């Protein structure tokens, strides 16, 4: 049976989320409801028992795509621009002095093109490019020029505050605006972990953006996930899993993070 309308016999199966659908209309409905793009996740975890020759071939082709993307990015004229190199070096150096491990992707990657983070030498502070994700409402918002001394609570006010938020945004995020502030949880994905071991750091809404980013690895710009404690989600917070110690990362950074792999697919 179709998993969208539950009336007709299923004819299609989504390569991304494996949901069954009976028609184009139900396919569009399931994509809208689950924010599914219908594109197979080439980096999805596959256990050894389920690994087949097709998976091996898929991995081989994925690595070929990675090689082509990296080669094209290396040939891009902007890569060799002294001004661009100086700007990136300055951003990474200033972030390092703030105890932030800022890492940049090659030219041609989606996040590299999007990133608008700057450092103001007069004020001696960062103005961050920031992405807010509200999983319970399948909504994403991009912010530009966010000062690093602004608290996370103030950053979220235009979105989840019932008084100060925009009416359109408020309506879309009504499940958040109708919840008490104590129920709102801000999470940030920990980079450079294994694909099947994704963990998140919980951030303090009362502290500044800079304080929350200290000691973290950031690929291009921060992405915050705003969730509600009372609603079920699959995000595991570091330190709340009894099977592992509360450490910052289990990788030395030599391999691509899952976020970087996603950027390769987008490029």
TrEMBL record:
Molecular function via GO: zinc ion binding
Native species: Nipponia nippon
Complexes and interactors: Interacts with FBL, SNU13, NOP58, NUFIP1, RUVBL1, RUVBL2 and TAF9. Interacts (via HIT-type zinc finger) with the RUVBL1/RUVBL2 complex in the presence of ADP.
Organism ancestry: Eukaryota, Metazoa, Chordata, Craniata, Vertebrata
Family per record: Belongs to the BCD1 family.
InterPro entries: BCD1, BCD1_alpha/beta, Znf_HIT
Start and end residues of each stretch annotated as Disordered: 242-267
The organism's place on the tree of life at top rank: Eukaryota
Keyword terms of this UniProt record: Isopeptide bond, Metal-binding, Phosphoprotein, Ribosome biogenesis, Ubl conjugation, Zinc, Zinc-finger
Function per UniProt: Required for box C/D snoRNAs accumulation involved in snoRNA processing, snoRNA transport to the nucleolus and ribosome biogenesis.
GO cellular component: nucleus; pre-snoRNP complex
Name of the protein: Box C/D snoRNA protein 1
Span of domain HIT-type: 2-36
GO biological processes: box C/D snoRNP assembly; maturation of LSU-rRNA from tricistronic rRNA transcript (SSU-rRNA, 5.8S rRNA, LSU-rRNA); snoRNA localization
